[in-house]
Design goal:
alpha/beta, 3-stranded antiparallel sheet, single chain, 25% strand, 10-stranded mixed sheet
Length: 257
Amino acid sequence: MKFKILIAFVAFILTANLVYAAKTIIATGHPEYPPVMWQEGDNIVGVGPEIVKMAFGEIGITVDSKFKGSWTQVQEGIKEGAIDMMVGIYMTAQYKTFMNYSVPYMKDPVVIFVEKDKTFPYKKWDDLIGKKGTTTIGDSFGKEFDKFIAGKLTISRFLKAEDNFNKLLSAEADYFISALYSGLVEAEKLGISDKIEYLPAYATAEMFYISISKESKFIRYLPQINEKIEKLVKDGTVDKLIDEKMKYYLEGIKGKR
């Protein structure tokens, strides 16, 4: 009798695990791109994971957002269907061959950083002509802006954001082109947040999307997820999450200094 009860219990646990697995989407993201996504222990946290949890939670699906290795490993996992989702990614023709995209949920702005109180009028790219600029080696800001930088601007490139900020603070450069969020994070790490600012007009901006593997069984839910994302953008939830996650991450940096 006890043996039969044990067998029944084991069968119940196995069945429960299978049901849980059937309703759990395996997600991942870039380990160092706050506030959109970053690694915290074994997990990927941030705005992207929160959005997918809200969206899939409404249809009874659990999101397991984990660090899954290098981008090469992640791509292989997505192509094979072992990883269902990216919680934050740019749209490219290459990625669209093995992933389907949601509607966009937030911008990733590129801005013009300057030394505090050394702003200048800026509304369009032409306003940068004749000034000394700097940016990071390897950074790309979209085909059109990259072409304008190469053909029209006086730009020096350096290996690290720290080098670029140093050029600003030593008056060797008038501006530093950088993604907004990564620039703010680096400034906080360097302890110079009070010494720099950025011009209010964006230079350009990419969009962040959720993407689902074409091999994933969850891809059929994409229309429902899009409806939820549009609602979260419209009601201000996404903007609130960006502020909250950015504040949380920056406070963590301060606590480590």
